[in-house]
Amino acid sequence: MKITKNTVVSFEYTLKDTQGQLIDSSVGQAPFAYIQGTGSIIPGLEREMEGRSMQDSFSAVIPPEQAYGVRDEELVQDVPRSLFETASGQIEVGMQFQTPTEVGFQTVTVVAVTSENVRVDGNHPLAGQTLAFDVKIVTVRAATPDELAHGHVHSPGDHHH
């Protein structure tokens, strides 16, 4: 079966930056599964998957515009420290927070802390990066009506929400 819209695809991957530094990998873990054509993975990788079959292996270089977007420096802002609440009372670089926006919640990452302000970055951590994937397609099957209705893959026996 070929990968087309509404097929469930499971795949193994290794993700590196353009300098060859490892960013993420599914090696030693369960393959990642998604429904093709639903926007569940970055657009450039979804496009590379289209038409492939089980056991295919390939490499793909995905530019930022087809991955997590280009960096937007307007998404880096200083926010008064008094607006942050943590269980420990500490705010540290690398912490992430959810913040409400006009279009729903957005994750921001703390990039600097002063006594007065916290600088947060609303860009995805991989925004602006060209991504290099090595992929092996493990399985391809038709999505079930329940999976299509719910918009995500169900593992065997998992259909309760």
Notes on the protein architecture:
- Helices cover 8% and strands 39% of the residues.
- The two termini are 29 Å apart.
- Strands 1, 2, 3, 4 and 9 form a five-stranded antiparallel beta sheet that branches.
- The protein is mainly beta and 161 residues long.
List strands and helices in order, with pairings:
Elements: E1 7-17, E2 22-25, E3 32-35, H1 43-49, E4 57-62, E5 76-80, E6 96-101, E7 104-113, E8 117-121, E9 131-142, H2 145-150
Antiparallel strand pairs: 1-2, 1-3, 1-9, 4-9, 5-8, 6-7, 7-8
Low-confidence stretches: none
Total beta-strand segments: 9
How far is the N terminus from the C terminus?
Answer: 29 Å
Largest sheet: 5 strands, antiparallel
Tally of separate helices: 2
- Mean pLDDT over the full residue set: 92
- Portion in helices: under 10%
Strand content: 35-45%
Radius of gyration: 19 Å
Overall SS class: mainly beta
**Helix-strand pattern, N to C?**
EEEHEEEEEEH
Shape: elongated
Summary of the model, kept short:
The protein is mainly β and 161 residues long. It has helices at residues 43-49, 145-150; strands at 7-17, 22-25, 32-35, 57-62, 76-80, 96-101, 104-113, 117-121, 131-142.
Write out key terms for the chains shown.
2 helices, 161 residues, 4-stranded antiparallel sheet, single chain, mainly beta, 5-stranded antiparallel sheet, elongated
